[in-house]
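Entry for the shared binder. Reason: the reviewer on the internal report wants the predicted structure included alongside the sequence.
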Amino acid sequence: MGEVDGVRYGTRQGRRVLVATVLGSGMAALDATVVNVALPAIGKTFGAQVAGLQWVLTSYLITLSAFILIGGSLGDIFGRRRVFLIGVAWFSGASVLCAVAPTLGVLIGARALQGMGGALLVPGSLSIIEASFIPDDRGRAIGAWSGLGGVATAVGPLVGGWLITAVSWRLIFLMNLPMAVLVLAASRHIPESRDPTASRKVDWLGASLIAVGLAATTYALIEGPSPGSSTAVVAVCAAVGMLALVAFVLVEMRTDVPMLPLTIFRSRQFSVSNVVTLVVYAALGGVLFLLVVDLQEVLGYSALAAGASLLPITILMLLLSARAGQLSQRIGPRLPMTLGPLMMAAGLVLMSRIDANSSYFTVILPALVVFALGLALTVAPLTTTVLGAVDAHQSGIASGVNNAVARVAGLLAVALIPPLAGITGAAYTEPVRFSHGFHTAVMIGAVLCLAGAIIAGLGIVNPPRAAGGPSEEELAQGPVTSCQLDAPSLGSGPEGSA
């Protein structure tokens, strides 16, 4: 794998490598969660309709989803440190453009550029740790990366909410700049690494096709239900999107070095796990996108209060993800991956009780806790099942594919769920109408989670080693999972895979 002489955990160099990688990946995770909280303020600044707010999120997810696998390949070829730092600089520059955007269109374009930068830095952060630390210290380093990233994600909405309330939503994008400076300062201690076996061919055609396919399809999904949209333009975009996606599959079947090797889906366990990822993360992304808006526009929460109200999800994920991973190792992933989405569905049903008069402690908090318990029970077993379903040499591409699937799920959810729930036009400025649509949206999310539970129950197979329980060494080491929560809301993808 082109590994350099290893860095030791606990040394000065090891701490600086962790600082750089945690802050680098944390930029993307923090930015995503804070942007959700800022959507109502952004909408008021530009007089945007719901479709405009959808584009603020989806423009980022389109480019991130399309190029994240390419980003990992570029790091293997040209140097993981180099590509990671380019991603940090790119993401920071795009963040400045977001902060000074004079129009909604410029903001949407800058968000797309942010996604391209994120596609370079997100896969690089974990691969740097895997390539830099000696094998005996790698597990501890990944655990520290995961935990510290989770803490950063938890703090982000609070700081961002305060900035939005006290000053302006524009400052949330400038939060990335001091983090980028620290990353660049610590980066000189990161040893460079490459994969000498990696092909130097990059599947730019595949990346371009998937980007066009996602963008055109998303346009049709968002703009189709919007008042005043052109039926002809929507139809053309839908056709172009579908043709591009079909062409992408054909190209990936024929190219020598595909960004998405379709042969990996021959594993039933891998395929089923990714279908579960798709439906569960669609529910997560779509509902939490609307929840922060509902809290502000229907219940009258400030941006700070709305961000703080979602902390129970982050805290429970941090506390319980590793334990859920250990449970999955002991009894197998099938039961946790079945019960977890069922609990998420129950939490979403409880959210349908939220209205303008709801008390946080008697209505909102119980729903969030039940939902978070289900999410914690799902994520770690899902991530470890994806990685365990393929050979060790395919673990990198497997985690990348699962990461991309989670982001595409969020993209489709943000595009589809609002119009399906009747949330279009200026609905977010009409509390009664938005509240009614939110209730429909959470029930759609509950149905998606129920589907995920059924798919996992029927399709996931416990590996033979689970029947007799894990070895003492496995129990002592525990699972390597990530508690980082990412776009489009509090949890958009398994990050060692958010």
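Summary line for the report: The chain is about 75% helix and 0% strand.
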